[in-house]
Design brief:
Methylmalonyl-CoA epimerase involved in propionyl-CoA metabolism. The protein is built from 5 helices and 9 strands. It is of the alpha+beta class and 176 residues long. A hairpin with a 5-residue loop joins strand 7 and strand 8.
Length: 176
């Protein structure tokens, strides 16, 4: 199921980003960094996590831990630079990142004002060379939400791609 989901997500990314990429049914079964990206300087990897904005972190954590029996649910961690608390739900083959606003300027606060029950906020995809990925993406006129990378919840460089350039999907790229 994850391989089918990976194919769906990869095919929904803006065509300018995928220009020249050959996708076949076997691509979904390759290891995370084997997908053929036309620029040999960087490779698209696996989905790291799906981020979900939630109005109640404790209730959401309880649901994933006790109802769906996730492998593990982390303790909430403040991510001051990003204006969120994060909790990771581990399913073994992927993770869900639960997001709760931290402070009045949190982008998640705005999201929850529009989506009272919460919902999918972004998809995080791994790349093996984030700086080269950013150069290539910008050459394809895909906007980023910041000029340079920031350190994300996993302690690795991340950058977000503008959803208007990615079929309405907010995509986070994370260095692996």
């Amino acid at each position: 199921m994850l391989s089918n989901f990976r194919q769906i997500v990869i095919r929904t990314i803006h065509p300018r980003l995928l220009n020249g990429i050959r996708l076949s049914s076997s691509d979904a079964n390759k290891s995370p960094i084997e997908t053929n990206v036309p620029n040999d300087k960087w490779n698209l990897g696996k989905i790291n996590h799906i981020a979900v904005a939630v109005p109640d972190l404790e209730k959401s954590s309880h649901f994933f831990k006790n109802t769906l029996h996730a492998n593990s649910v982390s303790q909430p961690m403040p991510q001051k630079e990003h204006g969120v608390y994060t909790t990771f739900v581990d399913f073994g083959n992927t993770k869900i990142e639960l997001l709760l606003p931290l402070g009045d300027k949190s982008p998640i606060k705005n999201f929850l004002e529009k989506n009272k029950s919460g919902g999918i906020h972004h998809i995080c995809i791994e790349v093996d060379n984030i700086e080269e990925a950013i150069k290539d993406i910008k050459q394809k006129h895909i906007r980023t939400l910041s000029e340079k990378t920031r350190i994300g919840a996993h302690g690795k460089p991340v950058i977000f791609l503008h959803p208007k350039d990615c079929c309405g999907i907010l995509i986070e790229l994370e260095q692996v």
